[in-house]
Amino acid sequence: METTQFSLYSTSFNNINEFEKLRKDLVTLGKDHKELANAVGDLHGKHHTVSTKVNQLELEVDRLTRAGITNNMVILGLPTMKGENTTDLVRKVAASVGCELSEDAIQDARRLNSKGKNSASTSTAPIKVTFTEEQFKEDLFAQKKNHGQLLPSAVDAKFAAFKNRVVLRDEMTSFGMNLLKEAREAEYLVDFKFIWPGRNGAVLVKKSENSSVHVIRSSVDLQKLKQQTSKRPLNSSVCSSEDSSPVIDRNKRVKNQHQ
């Protein structure tokens, strides 16, 4: 009997020791987990800080880049004709919306023909216009907005067969083009039917003809939109006018960045 009791006591003592060892191991594991969580949180905070600074730097570089092309405009939707004078075409666009340009208003006007594209894709190649002063560009934008939709036939009778719209927009920087591409390819914007470039480097998106316009200026705005589409739109402004920029219908899957 005594032997049995001693055996039970010894087993119980060993179990207590094992339990205490297990408890200490769990405490140590808990401390290690807390330290790891703190380290991960610290790294996340540093990553967020770096990402914020990078985003601010990108926006500042883009602002400076846009400042260097502030006199530039891109006109889309005008058919290419053999022997055309692009400067005259720009003047006709201005005249068709009631904008009077002085003789020295246009410094340069040329087609943006992409290398490797066939003749069909360049039949309405965009025209890049450089004005001698930014105000000339802004006057044309304002008159176009007041005029509303503009067809090629209103610019020149020889374009009567073309039914597409003529649209005006600022020349885009590489940052702006990449932001537009990112917005078009974002899976979480699949329900947004229209995506197009706005004024001053912004990208504009909206779900339908009558829905609110969301203004995108960076990848951060895209992430905010991803989280807030069911709440309220980002702040919009005069730069969201559809009259001054080509609206991109996602259903048509337009791939040419100049269309």
From TrEMBL:
<feature type="compositionally biased region" description="Low complexity">
    <location>
        <begin position="236"/>
        <end position="245"/>
    </location>
</feature>
<dbReference type="InterPro" id="IPR057251">
    <property type="entry name" value="FP_C"/>
</dbReference>
<feature type="domain" description="FP protein C-terminal">
    <location>
        <begin position="174"/>
        <end position="226"/>
    </location>
</feature>
<feature type="region of interest" description="Disordered">
    <location>
        <begin position="226"/>
        <end position="259"/>
    </location>
</feature>
<dbReference type="Pfam" id="PF25298">
    <property type="entry name" value="Baculo_FP_2nd"/>
</dbReference>
<feature type="compositionally biased region" description="Polar residues">
    <location>
        <begin position="226"/>
        <end position="235"/>
    </location>
</feature>
<protein>
    <recommendedName>
        <fullName>FP protein C-terminal domain-containing protein</fullName>
    </recommendedName>
</protein>
